[in-house]
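chain below, 236 aa
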Amino acid sequence: MKNPYRSEAEREELILKYLPLVKAIAVNIKKHLPEDLDLRDLISYGIIGLIKAVDNLITEDQKKAEAYIKLRVKGAIYDYLRSLDFGSRQLRKREREIKEVVERLKGKLGREPTDEEIAKELGISTQELFRTLDKINFSYILSLEEVFRDFTRDYSELMPSSVNVEEEVIKRELAEKVKKAVSKLPDREKLVIQLIFYEELPAREVAKVLGTSISRVSQLKAKALKHLREIISNLL
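prediction:
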């Protein structure tokens, strides 16, 4: 439904204005996804979120408008990704299988197994192993995002009605809770989160820093994200 308070020309102008923001959000989300997922699909669903945001937007405050649009764009992309069933039982079963193989190989070899050894034991290629680990990790990111969405739901619902909500206060409060949650993680998990999400290093580089395999980094990342969700849920 088009916004009755905005002309067609104004609507198109707003959509064009925020298209680069949609791409930036999609590119950032894509960093944490399996390589075979198409960036263009993320952008397409992000644009759907943008159009819906513009059609529901009443506030003339640019900062609040952009914050609301970001929420709707991210929400649309995450909804699409949820439809791909990242949290399926099959994926959880595969996660358990990988953990069991890693523990079995550690006992047998007396050290952390390499990515190649894990893949061979599972009967798959290393690329397939990495794709599976990426999916497992992103399922935890989606789960964590749901906690954040619950926290900001009141804000996103109030925006269209132009109620005066201080977005910066909400962002600061959420950032503080995330910072507090990260500080409660075990040191190794904390380091992985900092290197991947704050320093934006790829898993391969993080593996070099930690002196371990990419598979181990992915396992630590999944474990850290799971712990973060539990901690943040209790803080919110």
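Residues 126-158 form the longest helix (33 residues). The chain has two domains: 1-84, 86-236.
thats it, cya
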